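Endo/exonuclease/phosphatase domain-containing protein: structure, please.
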Amino acid sequence: MTLHGESRVPSEAKRPMPLLTTRAKIFIGTWNVRTMWETGKTSQIAMEMRRYNLAVLGISETHWTQAGQKRLATGEMLLYSGHEEDNAPHTQGVALMLSKLARNALVGWESHGSRIIKASFKTKKEGILMNIIQCYAPTNDSNDDIKDQFYERLQSVIEKCPRKDLTILMGDLNAKVGIDNTGYEDIMGRHGLGERNENGERFANLCAFNKLVIGGTIFPHKRIHKATWISPDHTTENQIDHICINKKFRRTMEDVRTRRGADVASDHHLVVANLKLKLKKNWTSGQTAIQRFNTAFLRDTDKLNEFKIALNNRFQALQDLLKEEETSMEDNWKGIKEALTSTCQEVLGLKKYHHKEWISTETLDKIKERKNKKAAINNSRTRAEKVQAQAEYIEANKQVKRSIRADKKKYVEELATTAEKAAREGIMKQLYDTTKKLAGKYSKPERPVKDKEGKPITEIRQQRNRWVDYFEKLLNRPAPMNPPDIEAAHTDLPIDVNPPTKEEIRMAVRQIKNEKAAGPDNIPAEALKSDIEATTNMLHLLFKDIWEEEQVPTDWKEGHLIKIPKKGDLSKCES
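Here you go.
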């Protein structure tokens, strides 16, 4: 078992809203997409997720290996879990795709192999989490040992969810529970589909034991809105994908039904549940994320001159203030920092990160056309109409695949051209970034951090506390028992103890490298170098005060520790 987490950024506090309320509603879904190991498939799934306004989408049969998390270009977060072995086959696999709302409420998540994944989210009800378990069960014809192993593992995951929490179990269970609810009245209604099979018996027993209500059986709908899977010849329909909720929170679930309009070329329909629920942002830090200034504008002469004028005006106002009033070194530094950051904000603005979506509008039109062909299948009234619509859908899907492959090829060629141009012009940063995209090599997913006893830590806050504890001990070592006895020098060495001169400051500012991340003060190097003379004069006054007071500003004592995994067991802080 592996566990993972992602730190969150706080927002301003809002008035808490009760968990059970008619004013708050979210939608969650589950979908067997048949594969995500196909060019452009992830983007198509994300488009459908946004179209149906889903907070969380559980995905079965991703065919991805390993476990990890990734941020999509459109903002969604994908948590995935697959086969952990090296050179594992691209089969099975589960994932959870999170909207921004759900991403901000994420408390932690766990991967449990290629068939089960779990994530926990903070809700507005104090002390109550929403646990979502997405799974992909073995088929009804699978070996009994494989089924037993799956249900044993699923049971161990469910029973670790606190009874006070809201628990959702969903996914492709490959289980037909049927219409007859005799003996299972507490956990299912009579609005299911078909007759119960062996997997359905196992699934119903699991739900009864854990008091999980099977949502698809308790809401009356037309047959077409109950069926979640359709056979390739479109003659057989079954209800094998389910969304369940623990009985304690049964009234939180308002509806469960399939959405036949959703389309990613799968033989399964998207299943959506409406919940009366409000998620809450998970605070894990006392700081907001630093947003970078768009220093690229300083390459433009007009913008550079505008920046110089604005900065000089602020520096002049600060110098006048220093002459009129008695100010401390700390006030002097705060004035310089405010002058620089305010000018950056006013003239440069914040840097916007544009993630270029490589799928063309022509391909999007073809995807829309395929969706229309699926609607034609769903609305067919005769067998002949359905066969014709199905043939047209297959052809439309082939066109989508061809178009996506062509888009990908064009995107790669554009990257190669950009890399060649960057190499010719000596823009090494752009060359490195583009080559990295071309190679398709990304850093390995961050492994779960373990506590001192070697147990994986589930929650993000606890993971952060573990890192704090580790670095406190690493960086605050006790003094040696036997300090070295070094004989003092007979004469004082000729060391210049005068404050730094303007020339020394000017040289140091010039030597700062561009395009490097700013520190906690968020002052970019390009801003300091925009008008070296003005910056030198202000820093000279500041350094003089620092020399006299023998103190540095409080901000300078703050630093950010960034952990960089190297080799070995990356779940250990020591690695």
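Notes: The chain has 13 helices and 16 strands.
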